[in-house]
Amino acid sequence: MSKLKLWENYQLVGQNRLAPRSHFDTHFVDDPEHLRNGQLLNGTWQFKFLAAPEYAPQDFAAPDFDDQGWAAIPVPSNWQLQGYGKMHYSDLWYNFPIIPPHVPSENPTGLYRRTFEVARIDPNEQYLLNFDGVDSAFQLFMNGHEVGYSKGARLTSEFDVTPYLQAGTNTVALLVVQWSDGTYLEDQDMWWLSGLFRDVHFFSRPKLGLYDLQVRTYLQPTPHTAELVVTPTFTGAADRSVTYRLTDGKTTLFEKTLTGDQSLDETVADIVPWSAERPQLYDLQLTVHVAGQPLEVVHQKVGFRQIEVVGKTFRVNGQAIKLKGVNMHDYSPTAGRVMTRADFRQNILLMKRHNINAIRTAHYPKAPFFYDLCDELGMYVIDETDLECHGFELTNRYDWISDDPKWQLAYVDRMKRTVQRDKNHPSIIMWSLGNESAFGDNFRAMAAYCKTVDPTRLVHYEGDFEAEVSDVYSTMYTWLEHETKLTMNQILEKTQKPHILCEYAHSMGNGPGNLKEYQDLFYGHDELQGGFIWEWFDQGIATQAGDQTYYRYGGDFGDEPNNANFCIDGLIRPDGRPSTALTEVKKTFEPFQMTLVDRATRQIRVINRLDFLTSDDYTFDYVLEDNGQVVAHGPVTVPTIAPREAAVIKLTADLPELTADHLYTLHLRTKQTTATPWADQGAVVSQTSLTLQRPVVRLHHARQQAITVQEDAVTLTLTAGANQYRFDKVQGSLTLTHAGQPVIQDGLRMNFWRAPIDNDMEILDDYYHKYFMNLWHESALDTTLTAEEHGDYRVTVEKLVGTTNSGWYYAITQTYTIHEDGSFDFAVDGTASGKRDCAPAMLPRIGVALALPQPYQRVTYRGLGPTENYVDSHQAAYLGVFETTVDDLFVDYVKPQENGNHMDTDRVTLQDGQHQIDVQMTTPLNFSVANYADATLEAAKHTVDLRPDDTVSLYLDFKQNGLGTNSCGQNQLQKYRCKFDDFHFGFNFNVRDRG
Ligand code: GAL
Ligand code: MG
């Protein structure tokens, strides 16, 4: 092989990097509150951006090098977000040819410099520089001396700088390259971002002190008893002793002194095990003595918990838990992959408040403080190492380097650094070998490493398709139903190991559908231990356009090739606001599920879906709404329900007498009895909403002034009070005016199209180019008038409706029955006709679209709300009466698309202040109303492209197709599809003055 450059030398995993070790705090004995000689070297550094590392000035690291002309850059940061290099998003493509380990000679490079002060050099201390993330490889210099070299963009690197350090001012310099041989192992689906993007830490440790420690816990058969094993590692020979003291913050559970070469092995009674539901932590204090003199105090959090595989399940503390997880990247809308401890806390809190209990660190380890937070707040973690070589999939040699022994060191080194740094976190239950890199000997070696060093945790790797070394059978986006693809049912038949979905429910745009179907399946089988939704963040880049912020995605930076908005697939929007999907997640993952067993006797079944806590930690209550107004509330008594058990309770509350024709919604809520570290006392964790009484829509039409009729060759005009109906007999269309003002123009158009959702992306090409689903045409056959009873008139319109060049079409009969009170009943029959077998498998929707005057902005509806809902995603919605506005009903997806549907609606009122439109359905329909017509949404790439239309679009749909999650995974389930079938629906429409 030709000569390798330093940053292409894949068999060199680092130079002078210290052996990886756990992250812990060491304190001076007489100053236990403060870190030892620590300073964060975050802040402003001097920065020089180059096209390749070779262009670096020879002496750029020298203390006296003149960096005056350099720019200032914040650390941590990704340089692309600071205006250097190129923004680029791709899913699996490498940005360069696959000629491992070679990378392009044009290799964006950042030179970094800064100084820091050290008051005094203590000869007994070792001085360290610690980098938690430098993307991708770097050389480190101290006071002009080369200290070492490291790679592994999202792994910690630590160096001993003692030999180069001086009292006073010290100069630290780095050369960071964007591309290295490491990049071949860092092909995750995300923005390509570089630089010092995590904390830089300078600190010291005593040379004779603790270098590392390993904490293991084993639960004992005796309840509340555990074995604690702690193995210390020291550097330098000395006569040492270690005093171990375990406290729960108040009381000491034990204290014991051992020599430095011994391991602690202590049985501890009266402990509370750690779980995500009750993340009980203990403080282990280690005081190290050398020759009888105290040297340092180290604090280590301990959570007692045990993981083991029993049959086809894995158990945490004896329980075959369910993972209700999400995949989480590092992400900031403004800073790229820079996340602070506060950012992580905020996000983990939001997860906890939505009943999420697990995180997969997709697809690389996070900064150490992330794991501290998971320990503290209670999250099961799959800690995935920084390894993905997805681009190889397209070379027909997916395992090209994964099975090449020459790359083994590089693979195992990544795993080693992950395990060694993170091994003492109770939150971590599995080590993940990486993502999407095929399988081969290098993975076998990584798994063996994990098992040797840490047999207390499970090994995870999805790419190990047959679960040869993975302790869990892990799959992604497995289908619920499909004729040829692997389905969940087949997994159940074949699996010999516990199964998890390391990714599912791809949350791109509107969706995912089917969360409930997956969850029901998990609950039904112990060996299905849940999964991790893809993903937490919508990874858009905040961009300012005037006073509007919008979010850019792949392709918006001229980045080629790119995967467009495939990075906008999270449960929270780029600005951190929860999506509808997150509300669905909270409901789907709720700890207490309730169902009505018997309406008459008000019996309710309560299932405790928790793994460890009983219902005693929660308080239950009810809230009764009468037409959307709270009219009663009170406690609900629930007996002790053990974890994963159920009970039937009787609702004894004295509810008020129900008024006829009102909608009564009963909310049964579960609240936290006490505050937890993640939520306040009284926080609602579950809510089930039951319809106690649903009114029937009864239409009454008062006899008023007789309707007058005029007809000529092409128009038919009927006048009922202030409402005038004008039918164009050529087009079979209606114009309705009220007191001379237009209300409906060009109605009532059949509508089978919707603004495409991301989950339709696999069928869009056919929709546009084969079925022409966006191009509908009407052939009006006949418009006839008949006089009916009670002075009513009926206009019947017959038409054929089909798309461009299609032989399949609907034969449509629309009837408008116009009443003397000015309202009309609309009814439509559609008969699927023509070459039916040429029709698509799914229609986006079946309904009518009305363009109403712009001032009708106030909306009241009786239907499923308040969140948007679709046939396969409506767990969080309930039947209620909701008052809102057209703008508030709009859901602003980063890439605009169909949104804001409300199922099961039997009444919609729109007001403009003086007038009111009432739409009533004797059989409920879907409705949505927007200031952006579907065509407006469809044309927009970003929210900033949207301008409100000059009409309000009202959509009344017999059916809306389900959402599915086919942007990655299951498409719309058969039962949720809107098919090319016959249909019939209708409603009553009226417009009147508000009196
Ligand atoms: C998976 C992959 C993720 C992401 C996702 C689609 O195959 O592991 O990294 O690419 O698909 O968003
Ligand atoms: Mg990938």
Q: Just give the CATH class of the domain at 708-993.
A: Mainly Beta
Please give the share of residues in helix: under 10%
Integer average pLDDT: 97
- Please report the number of helical segments: 10
Query: Strand-residue fraction?
Result: 35-45%
- Going by helix content, strand content and strand pairing, the class is mainly beta
The count of β-strands is 60
Shape: globular
Largest sheet: 12 strands, antiparallel
What is the fold-level CATH name, i.e. the topology of the domain at 708-993? Beta-galactosidase, Chain A, domain 5
Stretches where pLDDT is under 50 for at least 5 consecutive residues are none
What gap, in angstroms, lies between the N and C termini?
88 Å
Radius of gyration: 33 Å
Bound molecules: beta-D-galactopyranose, magnesium ion
Assign the CATH architecture of the domain at 708-993.
Distorted Sandwich
Domain Beta galactosidase small chain/: 717-990
InterPro entries: B-gal_small/dom_5, Bact_Beta-galactosidase, Beta-gal/glucu_dom_sf, Gal_mutarotase_sf_dom, Galactose-bd-like_sf, GH, GH-type_carb-bd, Glyco_hydro_2
Catalytic activity: Hydrolysis of terminal non-reducing beta-D-galactose residues in beta-D-galactosides
Keywords: Glycosidase, Hydrolase
